[in-house]
């Protein structure tokens, strides 16, 4: 079934992409894979010939009854979402766009998920299959357009968040879900400690919560589900009604806490166990941070040396990502044994180092 | 083609003197149980795919992590292959031993290390039974979602290695969606932690890669899983149909109505009768097919959904629709489904369970193909499915004591899997490739994909000592299989030399 969405361009340039890659591999020329180039900040700068996926676009199959969509990597994320929306469906992991040109390939390669992540799952949880262009320029199919498939290793999910350093994603098949019948958002003024207590209590109950963010002295909650449960839970939790637009502002990092004009300190993302205590960094006050994902994702500004922030995140049971560009790796260093198997995997799949070399870590 | 390890096709296996290996390991691991006498090895000669049996050279039963580390290190140094085994309920021969290998049995790792109700996570050893986790979490109103039908027996380590599913996976995901972290011991005896209690980890998603890797990349020594709050309510509808195709159509209609059921299962007449005879679940034995549709969540929503689904089922031509009146009846409805395999085991001396997946829309068509094949091979097939996920479990009934029936059952099974691939599906949805579907992998994957799989394997096991011969066929095997198996006049892997 070709795309029925005539407004969307439908172009398959996988042969040309494959040829470019095959040549680059033969010559040992590093490539910098570029989608919409909106997440370039998320990772180390790559010195390589740009290889754009933008022309490789279009929805190759979308059957709402199957809850599966297959889409070429260069397709603008916004277009995919609009197409799903027409059918009352969506990408449950609520990916950030960070710009109008963000592509589906960039979404998968960076693996970033939005506010719904702790309840719905992450990008990788919804990836069912991929077409990968390997270093020989061959288009390989892993996973597929079925909900369950355990034949062979899960290369599809391995590529999520790999930042294009193991191959080029040409196409992905994603599980989609129907949008819920009802949605309602709340703002509850309360101190952080109280919010944390409440979130633990609510987390143990089957409530229709699909986002929970504390900042600026208040807990922001989103409820999604059937009209009955959303209304009943809304009444039970109380608070003021919150405009649903809040969640896209949060996801796209348009809130003040992210942009913070005039604050020269780098922005950091801490991914921690929900219950983890406060990071001990000299210039960081816990109440000035944004606590998303019910506490499992925290955003802060700090001038502390990168190493200190990484160490602190590891001490708390998680890891950190420096969100403001610098020359080093923004990602927490891997343990020696993990680093060894990362290097081996890279050496097996990209021995000539042509796919985004150094994007994740200098040695990859 | 025999499924037992074949050096000509699967690659050479190192030859080590049993007495020497035994002496070496006894010296290195004086405190570890190491079985070597034939009568002690016998209970480990097969997993759930009992048609294939091999006595391992030795069986190691470590009881602590240090022993696993030392064992792996020594086996690596000695060049002895290692096959890991959990509870041995696997249906694809993934834990089938090697005559020249050590079988590493993880069944003594039985401890639930911690349940943290506030963080909603459980940290457990790999030998813990799937159901034991939910039982331990129950006092806190929590449970572990993936529920394979074998959950009273199978181990969580085996679940991770197979990426096991269950009847509630449509809504709550497979094992890979519910595991937060793994402790691994590598072939070289290193300890490695994948994932963590945070929701993501830096670097490649090795956690996802290890789920479903069938003991080929490392030994799982600890598992951290996510626990979910028990739904406030769960209701199950049972719909009868006079036609399997109509039931298949109804599955799609339910999804199209915007409903994501907690479980959506289908059984055909043969399976219904077998289950009813065994469990007395109250199934309509005259129906051609039944659908079990569970709706769970908050009371008000579930009631709305029950009404919607009822309407959909009526329009789809259901001849009877029953809502389980109470918890006891709900449990009974499910019990029939969960015991479908052993139930079929009662009506036939042997049965062979397939595990193909297909896009849901292909359900009626593939069911038709299976019926035709059943006639062609003159063997009965009972159908049980995770219908919501498009995961079929055709059960082929046969009698191994009758000359040629096992071979016919296997040939029929192979054809069914090929029909799944042709419909755009996969040869396995949850039971894994193991040894059983090693040849069908050649049907599903061309050379480039297989080569990539071997490359991934080589990153963790360059010398091929972890579970050799399972999961990914050699190109030599595919060439031979292809030669026997010409499709539409086209030889798969024409580029490879034939043997
Ligand atoms: C009646 C019946 C019903 C079943 N129903 C289902 C079902 O609904 N859904 C489903 O998904 N499966 C089902 N199964 C299949 C089986 O129970 C699962 O595959 C299960 O996950 C296997 O677990 P196990 O502990 O028995 O593993 P084993 O059979 O011992 O091993 C399976 C594989 O895992 C590897 N392995 C085991 N432990 C480890 C470890 N610690 N580290 C590394 N590798 C390891 C082995 O090497 C092997 O490759 C069923 C089986 C039976 C007999």
UniProtKB/TrEMBL annotation, chain A:
Its EC number is 1.1.99.14. The keyword Magnesium does not apply. One of its GO terms (molecular function) is glycolate dehydrogenase activity. It comes from the Bacteria. SUPFAM superfamilies: FAD-binding/transporter-associated domain-like, FAD-linked oxidases, C-terminal domain. It is an enzyme of class 1 (oxidoreductase). PANTHER family: D-LACTATE DEHYDROGENASE, GLYCOLATE OXIDASE SUBUNIT GLCE. This is Glycolate oxidase subunit GlcE.
Automatic annotation (TrEMBL), chain B:
The keyword Chaperone does not apply. Its cofactor is FAD. InterPro entries: FAD-bd_oxidored_4_C, FAD-bd_PCMH, FAD-bd_PCMH-like_sf, FAD-bd_PCMH_sub1, FAD-bd_PCMH_sub2, FAD-linked_Oxase-like_C, FAD-linked_OxidoTrans_Type4, Oxid_FAD_bind_N. It holds the Pfam family FAD_binding_4. Residues 52-230 form the FAD-binding PCMH-type domain. Signal peptide: none annotated. It comes from the Bacteria. Its EC number is 1.1.99.14. Keywords: FAD, Flavoprotein, Oxidoreductase. This is Glycolate oxidase subunit GlcD. It comes from Halomonas eurihalina.
């Amino acid at each position: 079934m070709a795309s029925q969405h005539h407004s969307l361009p439908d172009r398959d340039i996988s042969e040309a992409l494959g040829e470019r890659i095959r040549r680059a591999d033969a010559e040992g020329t590093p490539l910098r894979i570029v989608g919409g180039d909106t997440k370039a900040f998320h990772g180390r700068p790559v010195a390589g010939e740009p290889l754009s996926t933008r022309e490789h676009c279009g929805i190759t199959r979308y059957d709402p009854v199957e809850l599966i969509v297959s889409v070429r990597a260069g397709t603008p994320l916004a277009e995919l979402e609009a197409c799903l929306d027409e059918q009352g469906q969506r990408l449950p992991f609520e990916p950030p766009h960070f710009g109008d040109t963000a592509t589906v390939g960039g979404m998968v390669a960076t693996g970033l998920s939005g506010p719904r992540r702790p309840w719905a799952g992450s990008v990788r949880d919804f990836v069912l299959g991929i077409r990968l262009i390997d270093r020989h320029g061959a288009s390989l199919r892993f996973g597929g357009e079925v909900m369950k498939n355990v034949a062979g290793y899960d290369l599809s999910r391995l590529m999520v968040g790999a930042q294009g350093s193991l191959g080029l994603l040409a196409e992905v098949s994603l599980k989609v879900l129907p949008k819920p019948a009802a949605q309602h958002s709340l703002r509850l003024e309360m101190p952080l400690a109280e919010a944390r207590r409440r979130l633990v209590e609510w987390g143990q109950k089957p409530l229709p919560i699909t986002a929970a963010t504390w900042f600026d002295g208040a807990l922001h909650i989103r409820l999604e589900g059937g009209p009955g449960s959303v209304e009943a839970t809304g009444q039970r939790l109380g608070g003021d009604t919150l405009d649903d637009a809040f969640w896209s502002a949060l996801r796209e990092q348009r809130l003040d806490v992210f942009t913070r004009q005039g604050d020269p300190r780098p922005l950091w993302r801490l991914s921690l166990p929900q219950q983890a205590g406060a990071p001990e960094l000299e210039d960081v006050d816990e109440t000035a941070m944004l606590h998303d994902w019910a506490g499992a994702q925290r955003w802060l500004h700090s001038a502390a040396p990168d190493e200190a922030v990484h160490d602190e995140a590891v001490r708390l049971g998680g890891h950190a990502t420096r969100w403001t560009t610098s020359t080093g790796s923004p990602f927490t260093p891997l343990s020696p044994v993990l680093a060894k198997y990362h290097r081996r995997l890279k050496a097996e799949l990209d021995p000539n180092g042509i796919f985004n070399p150094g994007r994740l870590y200098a040695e990859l | 083609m025999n499924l037992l390890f074949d050096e000509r096709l699967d690659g050479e296996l190192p030859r080590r003197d049993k007495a020497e290996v035994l002496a070496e390991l006894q010296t290195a691991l004086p405190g570890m149980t190491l079985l070597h006498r034939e009568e002690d090895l016998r209970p480990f000669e097969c997993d759930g795919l009992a048609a294939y049996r091999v006595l391992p050279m030795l069986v190691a039963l470590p009881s602590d992590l240090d022993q696993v580390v030392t064992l792996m290190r020594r086996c690596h140094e000695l060049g002895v292959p290692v096959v890991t085994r959990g509870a041995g309920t696997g249906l694809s021969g993934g834990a089938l031993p090697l005559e020249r290998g050590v079988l590493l049995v993880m069944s003594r790792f039985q401890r639930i290390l911690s349940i943290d109700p506030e963080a909603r996570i459980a940290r457990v050893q790999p030998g813990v039974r799937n159901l034991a986790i939910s039982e331990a979490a129950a006092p806190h109103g929590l449970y572990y979602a993936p529920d394979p039908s074998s959950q009273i027996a199978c181990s969580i380590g085996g679940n991770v290695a197979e990426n096991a599913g269950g009847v509630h996976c449509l809504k709550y995901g497979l094992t890979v969606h519910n595991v937060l972290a793994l402790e691994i011991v590598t072939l070289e005896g290193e300890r490695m932690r994948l994932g963590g209690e945070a929701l993501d980890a830096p670097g490649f998603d090795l956690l996802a890669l290890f789920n479903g890797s069938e003991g080929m990349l490392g030994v799982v020594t600890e598992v951290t899983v996510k626990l979910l709050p028990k739904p406030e309510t769960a209701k199950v509808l049972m719909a009868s149909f006079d036609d399997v195709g109509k039931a298949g159509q109804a599955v799609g209609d339910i999804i199209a109505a915007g409903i994501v059921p907690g479980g959506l299962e289908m059984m055909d007449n043969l399976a219904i009768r077998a289950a009813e005879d065994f469990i007395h679940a109250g199934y309509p034995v005259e129906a051609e097919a039944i659908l079990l549709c569970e709706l769970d969540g908050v009371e008000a929503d579930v009631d709305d959904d029950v009404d919607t689904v009822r309407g959909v089922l009526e329009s789809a031509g259901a001849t009877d629709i029953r809502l389980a009146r109470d918890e006891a009846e709900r449990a009974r409805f499910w019990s029939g489904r969960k015991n479908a395999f052993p139930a079929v085991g009662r009506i036939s001396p042997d049965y062979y369970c397939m595990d193909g997946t297909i896009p849901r829309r292909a359900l009626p068509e593939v069911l038709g193909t299976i019926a035709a094949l059943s006639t062609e091979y003159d063997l009965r097939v009972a159908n049980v499915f995770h219908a919501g996920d498009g995961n079929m479990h055709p059960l082929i009934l046969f009698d191994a004591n009758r000359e040629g029936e096992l071979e016919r059952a296997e040939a029929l099974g192979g054809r069914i899997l090929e029909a799944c691939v042709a419909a755009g599906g996969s040869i396995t949805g949850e039971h894994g490739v193991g040894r059983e579907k090693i040849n069908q992998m050649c049907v599903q994957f061309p050379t480039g994909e297989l080569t990539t799989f071997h490359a991934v394997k080589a990153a963790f096991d360059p010398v091929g000592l972890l579970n050799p011969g399972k999961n990914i066929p050699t190109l030599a095997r595919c060439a031979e299989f292809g030669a026997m198996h010409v499709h539409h006049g086209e030889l798969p892997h024409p580029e490879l030399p034939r043997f």
